[in-house]
Amino acid sequence: xxxxxxxxxxxxxxxxxxxxxxxxxxxxxxxxxxxxxxxxxxxxxxxxxxxxxxxxxxxxxxxxxxxxxxxxxxxxxxxxxxxxxxxxxxxxxxxxxxxxxxxxxxxxxxxxxxxxxxxxxxxxxxxxxxxxxxxxxxxxxxxxxxxxxxxxxxxxxxxxxxxxxxxxxxxxxxxxxxxxxxxxxxxxxxxxxxxxxxxxxxxxxxxxxxxxxxxxxxxxxxxxxxxxxxxxxxxxxxxxxxxxxxxxxxxxxxxxxxxxxxxxxxxxxxxxxxxxxxxxxxxxxxxxxxxxxxxxxxxx
Length: 300
Prior knowledge:
Helix content is 21%, strand content 33%. By secondary structure, it is of the alpha+beta class. The protein has a single domain (3-37, 49-296), classed as Deoxyribonuclease I, Chain A (4-Layer Sandwich), CATH 3.60.10.10. A 6-stranded mixed β-sheet has the order 3-4-2-1-12-11. Strand 7 (184-192), helix 5 (200-214) and strand 8 form a beta-alpha-beta unit. Helix 3 packs across helix 4 (106-114). The protein is globular, with a radius of gyration of 18 Å.
C-alpha cells in the first residue's frame, strides 16, 4: 500500500475516532478568532468573504515544567489561555510518561482546562510501568477551539533518545490536523525537530515534512520547535513552500534571557500575517509565539 493510500485509509479511521471522542465529552470550545471578529455565531462565512481571521500559536511546554523545573500544569494552562489562540501546536507533551509530570495525561488535561479539542501525536509509545498501567507516551499535540476535521500522526526521520546507538529512521510524532474556519479549510501541523548539533537529521526531517505538506492543498500552517534558527542551512528548503510569520520576532529560548529564535510559526504563501508576538513567560524553558493570520475564503 503506497503512502497516499495509507493516508486515505488512516483519515477515514481517525475521522471516525474524532467524532466518537467529541461525542464522549469534549468540552465545547470558546469563540474562535473568526467568531470574535464577526460576533458570536456559527463558524460559517458568505461566499463573498475575502479573508478569514485565525490566531495560531506554538509552544514547547517542557512537559509542564517551568524554567525553574517545577512541574505546574496550572501555570502551563494559564499561559496558554492568555494567548487567546484558536489553534496551538504544543511540543514536549507527556502522557503518563513519568514522575517528572506526575504521570499526567497532559494533552487531555490541558484540553479540559482550556475547553478545547485536542489531538496528541506520540513520538514514543512505551509499555507502562506496571502490567495493567497506561502506556507511557511523549510527543506533540494540537489544541483547537474549532472542530478537528481530520488528524494524523505522520512519520519523519528521527534519531531516538530511547535506544542505545540509534540510527536515523522513520518514526511518528509529526502531527497534522485540519479545521474549518468560517467555511475555509486549513491544515495545521505541529513538529519538534532534532536537538543535536549535527544538522543532518533536521535536514532529513525538513524533507519529510515538505513531502507531507505537498500532499495537502489550501492554506497551511506549520508550528513547532525547530531547534534551529530560520537562517540555519538545514531549514533552507522550507522557505518557498512556507514563509516565516515573524521574521523580526523576539528570541524564544531559553525563556529567561533568550538568545535563540527556534520556536517558529510558518505559513504557506496564500496566508497573510497581520501580527505576531513572542510571549514573555517562564512557565516553560521556551517562550510561546502567537500569530494573527488572514486566510482566503475557500468554500470547499
